[in-house]
């Protein structure tokens, strides 16, 4: 089974989950979120998650953080010592949706890179001229 955690500064993670529920319905209900607030420590969340990982070596965990090099992703970096953890920074709706729709099987490194690539394709400057020249 695959467990997806979205960890961000503020309520961004909750908003992403809500948007995913609007798009894919029940498939997004199992996503867990972590919202870091100024009075909290991302390390506390990381420690709690490491305890869960130590007890569950069967499920795959995909951790989606917001900013590369910032406190949330940095705190989660230690979780990548577990073989069943994938940590990806720069979470957006495209990335989370691609991962939800990827199916329940364990992802290969090539599949992860393809999912990241596909998610990046949604980041574009959009103008009428661009849309007229775009192939869909």
Automatic annotation (TrEMBL):
InterPro entries, A to Z: Bacterial_PTS_sugar_comp, PTS_EIIA_man-typ, PTS_EIIA_man-typ_sf
GO cellular component, one term: membrane
Record GO terms (molecular function): transferase activity
GO biological process: phosphoenolpyruvate-dependent sugar phosphotransferase system
PROSITE patterns noted in UniProt: PTS_EIIA_TYPE_4
Keywords associated with the record: Sugar transport, Transferase, Transport
Domain PTS EIIA type-4 intervals: 1-123
Signal peptide region: none
Protein name, as recorded: PTS sugar transporter subunit IIA
Protein source organism: Enterococcus rivorum
């Amino acid at each position: 089974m695959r467990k997806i955690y979205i960890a961000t500064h503020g309520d961004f993670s909750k908003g992403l989950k809500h948007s995913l529920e609007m798009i894919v319905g029940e498939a997004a209900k199992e996503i867990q979120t972590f919202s870091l607030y100024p009075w909290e420590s991302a390390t506390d969340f990381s420690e709690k998650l490491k305890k869960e990982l130590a007890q569950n070596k069967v499920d795959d965990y995909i951790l989606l953080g917001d900013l590369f090099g910032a406190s949330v992703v940095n705190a989660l970096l230690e979780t990548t010592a577990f073989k069943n953890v994938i940590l990806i920074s720069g979470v957006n709706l495209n990335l989370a949706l691609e991962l939800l729709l990827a199916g329940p099987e364990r992802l290969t490194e090539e599949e992860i890179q393809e999912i990241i690539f596909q998610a990046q394709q949604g980041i574009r400057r959009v103008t009428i001229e661009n849309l007229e020249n775009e192939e869909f």
